[in-house]
């Protein structure tokens, strides 16, 4: 008899928790998932391949490369070039200076001249 009563009590506890997981009524203020889904930005592509969109505030925004790939490739190429140029001693100075110069140059080449305003 105790097992039956405990089983009924367990089913009753789970049945009362189910409505709390339901979506709120449509007239309730939007919070969480519905508030995030309310605004869907429109993406546009310019003639030179830059994607931009209009934000909720009416301003236009664009996404461009931050230069990380160029920084890494430039640093590697600069380190190799610096090591080849500096032939005296342990060649650490040439490697470090070449890596720094290559990283800066590669980053600027990847970022380009795009202005997002």
Automatic annotation (TrEMBL):
Keywords assigned: Lipoprotein, Signal
Localization per record: Cell outer membrane
GO cellular component terms given for this protein: cell outer membrane
Protein name: 17 kDa surface antigen
UniProt xrefs under InterPro entries: Gly_zipper_2TM_dom (IPR008816)
Topological relation to the membrane, as annotated: Lipid-anchor
The species this protein was found in: Tsuneonella dongtanensis
Family: Belongs to the rickettsiale 17 kDa surface antigen family.
Superkingdom, natural source: Bacteria
């Amino acid at each position: 008899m105790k097992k039956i009563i405990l089983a009924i009590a367990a089913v009753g506890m789970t049945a009362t928790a189910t409505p709390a997981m339901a979506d709120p009524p449509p007239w309730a203020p939007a919070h969480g998932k519905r508030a995030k889904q309310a605004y869907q930005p429109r993406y546009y592509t310019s003639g030179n391949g830059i994607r931009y969109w209009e934000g909720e505030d009416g301003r236009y925004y664009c996404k461009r490369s931050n230069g990380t790939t160029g920084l890494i490739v430039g640093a590697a190429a600069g380190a190799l070039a610096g090591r080849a140029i500096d032939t005296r001693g342990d060649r650490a100075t040439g490697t470090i200076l070449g890596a720094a110069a290559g990283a800066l140059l590669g980053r600027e080449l990847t970022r380009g001249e795009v202005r997002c305003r």
